[in-house]
Amino acid sequence: MSVLTNDARPIAVYRMVVGEAGHSGAVPRWLRRDAVFATAELLTHLDRHWRTLLERGRDLVVTSGVMGTDSSEHAIARIPGLLRMSFEARSQSQETLEAFYDLFVSECASIGEERGVEFRFDRRLQSAPAVMDPGWVEKLRSAARSLGLPDEPIPSGAGHDAAVFANAGVPSAMIFVRNENGSHNPYEDMQISDFMAGVAVMRQVLREAVQ
After folding, report:
1. CATH code linked to domain 130-210
2. Measuring CA to CA, how many Å separate 132 from each of 90, 161, 170, 182?
3. Distance between CA atoms of residues 109 and 41, nearest Å
4. Cα torsion angle, 115, 116, 117, 118, sign
5. In sequence order, which ranges of 88-133 are alpha helices (DSSP H)?
6. CATH 1.10.150.900 spans which residues of the chain?
7. Phi/psi of residue 168, nearest 5 degrees
8. Which one, of 197, 192, 190, 194, lies nearest residue 144 by Cα?
9. In 13, 126, 140, 210, which residue has its Cα 20 to 30 A from 94's Cα atom?
10. CATH 3.30.70.360 occupies which residues in the chain?
11. Helix, strand, coil shares of the chain as percentages rounded to 5?
């Protein structure tokens, strides 16, 4: 049984990488403006920066969940001149988020100049990290212990509706139960007994709150 203490929120942007289309056999490397190779290099650099920050104890996750070239122009021998993708960074530290975003922009500029492509950004989307209410966190942990359940306070790298309430001034907390293969994938496997344990904790806390 885990009780959420903080909810990380992201910086996210969509972007277009604009290069120049061409035939693979007709354009040498030094003249290519390949949107895919430029993006691959960008992600490789960002992954290296991410690993370094984790090794220094920073809290950070980085994802590019949307990526694709123009399907109407797909061909094995075609140099892609256009690519669309997303970039997202999550952390409980606003300082870490801003620092990594600055790295992202800097890498885009450097790689864009070197490879002759342009990184065009859409509007930056951001929501603030949320801190759960310490009182409610302790109530949930106390209820779990009274029911003989192990508990552990954890931060979350995902975003939740509770963060919206918390940032609006509504005291909030969350209960997490075990899921063998994690969430948001087709193999997730939560045991009903674990689910019912979470329900029991919530029921006890709500019962105490109304007494």
Report:
1. 1.10.150.900
2. 17, 12, 9, 22
3. 12
4. positive
5. 94-115
6. 130-210
7. -90, 5
8. 197
9. 140
10. 10-126
11. 40, 25, 35
pLDDT in tens, the chain (211 residues): 444 445 455 677 777 899 999 998 899 999 999 999 999 999 999 999 999 999 999 888 899 988 999 888 888 999 999 999 999 888 878 888 889 999 999 999 999 999 999 999 888 877 666 778 889 999 999 999 999 998 888 777 666 777 778 878 888 888 888 887 777 778 788 889 988 999 999 999 988 888 7
> What's the whole-model pTM score?
0.70
- CATH 3.10.310.10, domain 10-126, yes or no: no
Name the token pair of 175: 């209960």
